[in-house]
Amino acid sequence: GIYLVGREFFSRKKRSWAPLLAAFFTATSFWHLNFSRIGFRAISVPFFATFGLYFLLRGLRKNNILDLTLAGVFIGLGFHTYIAFRFMPFVIAIPLGVALWRWWQHRRTLATASVPIPASWHTVACAPCAVILFLFITFITALPIGWYFLQHPESFVGRGAQVSIFETPSPAWEFIKSNALTAQMFFWRGDCNWRHNFACKPQLNSIVAIFFLIGIAYTLRSLFKKYIRPHHLSRAHAMLLVTCFGFMTLPATLTAEGLPHALRAIGVIPPVMLIAGLGAASLLSSIQSWLQQRSIRY
After folding, report:
1. Which helix (H) or strand (E) holds 20?
2. Fewer Cβ atoms within 10 A, N terminus or C terminus of the chain?
């Protein structure tokens, strides 16, 4: 799943090692493997989020009904898992919004064109139709759990309210502190609960952590440029990566108990591994370019 969604994030026109490296980092991550062996329901969050995003991006790109239907099924099923998945609507709003914006811009260009438009330009995918189909399938799939929460609202807010920062005397200070503790878990001190982690070790090993930092710099740079070689991470996909990372950390940063908390932040595994894969691939490409320049020079 990480490999497939990575293929959608990074340019398909040029081969990139980023998706494969991201999949390798996930497969060898103690953070992910530990929870998959314990069998907590939270391990379903990265699974449904990854495949949901993959089929959504693929469906919007190809205007494929089957892909959009599968995307709705995966995202809808995700709401039946761990409560951290409730932040996914903020993530999927990015590709949906970009698709609608591009469709509207294209339609406006056609309407205001002062020269004849080729007939092929008029065969534009109906982005609103794709969005409505996806949202409808998601709604139907999530309806059972939604109906239950409608009848039992205390079950919807119960656990979240118990550990929320808004139940503390100073929510703003607790939010700053929880963000700092969550940020450090990637690099030098992770979850100290032995059920979740091994001896307070960082959630990322030192090598992957370095690649993650490089990938963050690459992703943030992509937000201000249309394309950056060699991996062609578009501005929209960079925004989606940043949004996914930011919102999927909120289940941990909005709590004031047991931080850093690897279980509550489990939904951030896919964007973290994709960013680390991008950082590793960009570093390898830079080294390869440097070696090629030296061989040409000498």
Report:
1. helix 18-27
2. C
Burial class (CB within 10 angstroms; exposed 0-12, middle 13-18, buried 19+) of 224: exposed
Whether residue 254 contacts residue 178, with contact meaning beta carbons closer than 8 Å, is answered with yes
> Two tokens at 177?
């502190």
- DSSP 3-state of 255: strand
Angle, vertex CA 52, rays to CA 257 and CA 159, nearest 5? 25
3-state DSSP assignment of residue 118: coil
Cα–Cα distance measured from residue 24 to residue 75, given in angstroms and rounded to the nearest whole number: 24
Q: Count other C-beta atoms under 10 Å from residue 49's C-beta.
A: 30
Q: Quick one: how far is CA 150 from the chain centroid?
A: 28
β strands within 126-216, DSSP E: none
The contacts of residue 248 (CB under 8 Å, 6+ apart) are: 49, 84, 87, 88, 91, 265, 267, 268, 271
pLDDT by 10s per residue, the chain, length 298: 999 999 999 866 556 899 999 999 999 999 999 999 998 899 999 999 999 999 999 999 999 999 999 999 999 999 999 999 999 999 999 999 999 998 988 888 777 755 554 444 444 578 999 999 999 999 999 999 999 999 998 888 776 667 788 888 888 999 999 999 999 999 999 999 999 999 999 999 999 999 999 999 999 998 887 555 545 688 889 999 999 999 999 999 999 888 899 999 999 999 999 999 999 999 998 888 888 887 766 5
